[in-house]
Specification:
CATH class of the domain at 206-289: Alpha Beta
Number of helices: 8
Largest sheet: 5 strands, antiparallel
Helix content: 55-70%
Radius of gyration: 40 Å
CATH topology of the domain at 206-289: Alpha-Beta Plaits
Number of strands: 8
CATH architecture of the domain at 206-289: 2-Layer Sandwich
Length: 305
């Protein structure tokens, strides 16, 4: 009985408060406040009803990211053990990673109640918009495929393109990474690398080392050639077989010297060792044989009046 009386009194108090607010603020404001409360209540109830689905979607997202990384890692290990080219290896791993994340996002949106047709429409529209906004990136993507198909270079190649050169360390979807001799990283867009004139320095197993040495007009040319041949014999990395026999011939009569062209062959990996050895050994032999290495000089004749 007491509870009934208290409930009745509470109801009377609420009615009195409502009437006071209505008299003070007006009926229209009260209706707006009531509508806002109802709207917030509906949002809260909808959130509570979707809460299990949201939690499940978050769990799927976390598990999906973990599984995607695991799949890429396992695939990478499998391809590393195979004889697959490193260039294709890195490219496939990048593509698989992107595809897995796109599939994961699609699954999450489907779980949250987004219609599949809407997702496909959004992806298609976004693809067109992104394609128009990222034309250069799409060109780089196409360039990456061209590099994989034509294989003008691969990971480990030393290339020169667009005024820069270095060793290729990775070929990704959009760019190729080079490391220079002084250990600087250079990123070249694949579109540029596939369309530009490119020099692959290390594609062949052998390279030719070209040098030019000058002697004085007063020196014996045959003696100089013999000295050069003797110096080349001290370079163990120079090839001496018939197709790659060292070439020593006069190549020019310069203003103050006779120029001798020296061309030798070596393994590509030994290029710089041979290049510097040839210069050092020939200079030392010239000094030992008393052969003058000329330098530019100017003779001045003074006439007395």
């Amino acid at each position: 009985m007491l509870n009934i009386l208290l409930s009745a009194e509470t109801t009377d108090v609420e009615q009195e408060i409502t009437e006071v607010i209505s008299d003070t603020l007006g009926e229209e404001l009260v209706e707006n406040v009531s509508g806002l409360n109802k709207f917030l209540q509906e949002i809260w109830e909808g959130f509570l009803s979707k809460l299990p689905t949201i939690i499940f979607a978050i769990i799927i997202l976390i598990v999906g990211i973990f599984l995607s990384k695991l799949v890429v890692k396992l695939m990478g290990k499998a391809m590393d053990k195979s004889k697959l080219d490193l260039t294709i290896n890195h490219f496939i791993k990048s593509m698989v990673k992107i595809i897995l994340y796109v599939v994961l996002i699609t699954v999450i949106l489907t779980l949250l109640g987004v219609p599949t047709t809407s997702i496909i429409t959004v992806i298609g529209t976004a693809g067109v918009a992104v394609g128009l906004a990222l034309q250069n990136s799409l060109s780089n993507l196409a360039g990456g495929f061209l590099i994989l198909i034509a294989k003008p270079f691969k990971v480990g190649s030393y290339i020169a393109v667009n005024g820069v050169e270095g060793t290729v360390t990775s070929i990704n979807i959009l760019y190729t990474k080079l490391m220079t001799i002084d250990n600087k990283a250079i990123y070249i867009p694949n579109g540029m690398a596939s369309n530009a004139v490119l020099t692959n320095v290390t594609e062949a197993d052998l390279r030719r080392v070209d040098n030019v040495f000058s002697i004085s007009y007063d020196d014996d040319y045959r003696k100089a050639c013999a000295a050069i041949e003797k110096a080349l014999g001290r370079c163990p990395k120079i090839l001496t077989d018939t197709p790659h026999k060292p070439f020593i011939r006069m190549c020019a009569h310069s203003a103050s010297s006779i120029d001798i062209a020296v061309r030798v062959w070596c393994s590509t990996s030994d290029y710089w060792d041979v290049y510097f050895d040839v210069i050092e050994f020939i200079r030392a032999e010239f000094i030992e044989q008393g052969i003058e290495i000329p330098y530019q000089q100017l003779d001045v004749h003074m006439k007395e009046n």
